Amino acid sequence: MRPILIEFAGIKVHSYYALWTFALCLAVVLTRKRMTDFYMVPDDDARFIVAAAFLGMFLGARAGFALEHWRVYLEEPWRLLRFWEGGLSAVPAFLGAGAAGIIASLSRKVPVWITAESAAVPAAITVALGRWGCFLNGCCFGTVTEAPWGVVFPGDPEAIIRHPVQLYYSFGALLIAAVLLAVERRRSSGGAFLWPLFMVFYSILRLVADPFRAEFRSPGLIAVRITLFAVLAAGILWLFLPRFFGIKRRKCRNGDT
């Protein structure tokens, strides 16, 4: 693997930090563009909502990782500020972004479903790119395997062939993005659909891939699984019972309703 992507003048750029930062910045750009181009949201409102969601995503990701490894941060709390060392958790990141996005949307009187629809594809792309940072960093590695695609992670003290779970996440998220784009092209109505579909697909991806992780039975991943089941149930309800969420069909791009 390659934990240090580049080093220049004594400054080390970590692969994990670089790729996740690039993925998140790309998500911000794509979400804003989708809000303004597809759903005619004023650019000032789109910028505000996306910035709030980005902050919520970062805080949620950091908080989730800190709760999972609370003993480390209890002994050295200042390490919470050293985000360049890694330490981001995907599920809490989406929860943080969602909560902040909802609050910001309501404050700007932009329908929440528009924000959610705009962020669905970028969210999947974020995972697809960011998980390569995990792979290069050697974190989140898997259990022992004899599969031909198994890898030996340099930081693994046992130096054994393991599942590259990070790439399972990445390729799975890329497939989710492709499916969402295909569904979007064929839609003829507005209202929330892509985001709840992402909630369902991403939850399934994690529930299927997580058992291959070495720390599958850790308290942190147990808490994540409980959250994933809740997200999966909410996504299914949102898809099939839109009135449960108070979602109404509204006009969106190209005058569709």
* Poorly predicted regions: 245-257
Sketch the major β-sheet.
2 strands, antiparallel
- Report strand order across the widest sheet: 1-2
- The secondary-structure element order is EEHHHHHEEHHH
How many individual domains?
A: 1
Mean pLDDT: 84
Structural class: mainly alpha
First-residue to last-residue Cα separation? 49 Å
Number of helices: 8
Task: Tell me the radius of gyration.
Answer: 19 Å
Beta-strand content: 5-15%
The counted number of beta strands is 4
Shape: globular
**Percent of residues in helical segments?**
55-70%
How is the secondary structure organized here?
Layout: E1 4-8, E2 11-14, H1 15-38, H2 43-68, H3 70-75, H4 90-107, H5 112-137, E3 151-152, E4 161-162, H6 165-186, H7 194-209, H8 219-240
Antiparallel strand pairs: 1-2, 3-4
Helix pairs in contact: 1-2, 1-5, 2-4, 4-5, 5-6, 5-7, 6-7, 7-8
Descriptive tags:
257 residues; mainly alpha; two-stranded antiparallel sheet; 8 helices
What does this structure look like?
This protein is mostly helical and 257 residues long. It has one domain. It is 62% helix and 5% strand. It has helices at residues 15-38, 43-68, 70-75, 90-107, 112-137, 165-186, 194-209, 219-240, and strands at 4-8, 11-14, 151-152, 161-162. The chain has a two-stranded antiparallel ribbon with strand order 1-2. Strands 3-4 form a two-stranded antiparallel ribbon. A hairpin with a 2-residue loop joins strand 1 (4-8) and strand 2 (11-14). The radius of gyration is 19 Å and the shape is globular.
